[in-house]
Request: fold
Amino acid sequence: MQTHFTEAQRRNPAIQVADEVLRKCVHCGFCTATCPTYRLTGDERESPRGRISLIQNLLESGAAPSPDTVANLDHCLSCLACESTCPSGVSYRRLIDQGRELIEDKYQRPLVERTTRNFLAWLLPRDRWFRRALILGRWTRPLLNRLGRHLPVAGAMARILPDRLPGYSADNPAVLPGVYLANGEELMRVGLITGCVQSVLAPEIDAAMVRVLTRHGCTVVVPESSAAGCCGALSHHMGRTAQARDTALANLRAWDATLAQPQDSDEGKIEAVVMAASGCASMLKDYPSLLDGSKKAENISLLIKDISIILNNLVKIKNPQTRDKALTGAAVAWQSPCSLQHGMQEQNAPVELLRSLGFNVRQPRDAHLCCGSAGTYNLLQPAFAQTLGTEKMSRLLETRADMIVSGNIGCISQLRSQGRSQNATETVPPVIHLAELVDWATGGPKPPAL
Ligand code: SF4
Ligand code: SF4
Reply:
C-alpha cells in the first residue's frame, strides 16, 4: 500500500524498515481470519490489517497515540499468526515493535497501569525477587482474588500463581553452570540458556533438558547464570526497546566467552544454543533486528535451535533402547507455542519426535490460535487472555489426551491456570514440557507435574 512519509522521515532507518513492510501489505485481509483478537471482537481495529493502518498513521503523523489506539495495539498478543497467514510476506512484528516503542515514548499511561508495567518489567527478570513475590502471592492469594474485582491484574496474578513452588532457587539452581558431558560418543555440543522466569517457575525443565540431551549423545554447556539472564523478551513486548537492547547486549557478552573458547580439555565448538522456553528462543533468533545487524547477534541467532529439532535428530541416530513401554501409545495433546509455530516457523519437529517415541499425538482444533499467555499479556490484558485460555483448554480437552505437552513455560503456566479454573466435572490432564516427556520416555524420572 502507499505510504506518505516525508523525505526527512525517510532518512530515519527505523522508518525505512517500516516503509518497506507497509508497502508489502496489499490490505487483502487474509490475516484477519487467524487473528485471535479479531475473532473475539470482529472489530477491524483489533485485526492485523487494522493495526497496520493505525501504526502507519502514527508513524506518518508523528502524533501521540490516542487512548483507543493504545488499547487496540495493547490487545495484540504478538502471536504472529498473521505473519504465518500473510501471502505477501508482511513482517508484522517489525511494525508492532515500532508501534509499542512509539507508545512508550509519546503516551503517558494512567498511574496504576504505569506502575504495574514498571513493577513487572523490574520484577520478572530478577529471579530471587520473583521467587519471593510468588511465595508472598501464594500466602495472599485470597486477598489478590478480592482485589481482582477492582484491579484486574491482581486477579490475574492470583489465577496464574503456581500450585506448588519447586525446591530450587537462585541459590540452589536445578542446573549449575558447567559442562555436562555426553553419555558415550559425543554427537554434538550445545549451549543451554536457563533464562529467568522459567528458572523460578519450573527449573525441573532445565534439569530434564540436560538429562535428555546428554543421554542422547549431546554435551551441554551451561554458562554462569549470573551472566546470562533474561533474554529481553519481557521488556521488548512492553515496548521498552532500550531496556531490551541492554539486556540482549549483556546476554551476548556472557555468551561471547562461552562461544569463543574451548569449553573443556576435550575442546569442541558449540553447534547450537538451546533453551526450554520457545518464547525466549524466538527472541534470541530476532536479536539481529533488535541490535541492527550486529555480527554477534547474527551468530547467536544462527545457533539458536528449538530443543524439538535437536532431539528429533538425536533420537533418530540413537534410537533409544530405554523407551518406557508403559508409555507407548499414550495419547498426548501437543500444544504448539506461537513463538515456535509462528515466530520460528517450526511445526513438524515436535510432532515427529513424539510419534517416533511411540506416542499417539493429537493436535487440537484451531492449533494456530494463541492460548493467551504471550509474555506479560495474561497479566496486563486478563480479559482477552482468560477467554483465549479457556478456548484453548476446551479444544485440548476435546482431544481426550492423557497429557498436554508444550514447549514454552508461558503456555504451560497459562494452561495449568486454565486447568485449575475449568469446570470441576471435567478431568484436566497434566501439562508438561516436551523435554520432560522425552526424558521420562527414554529413562529419566517421571515429571513432577505427573
Ligand atoms: S494478509 Fe498480509 S497483505 Fe493481506 S492485509 Fe494482512 S498483512 Fe496485509
Ligand atoms: S500478532 Fe496475533 S494478535 Fe497481533 S495482530 Fe497478529 S494475529 Fe492478531
Notes: The beta strands are 178-180, 188-192, 218-222, 272-274, 331-335, 360-362, 403-406, 431-433. The two ends are 51 Å apart (CA to CA). Residues 111-160 form one domain.
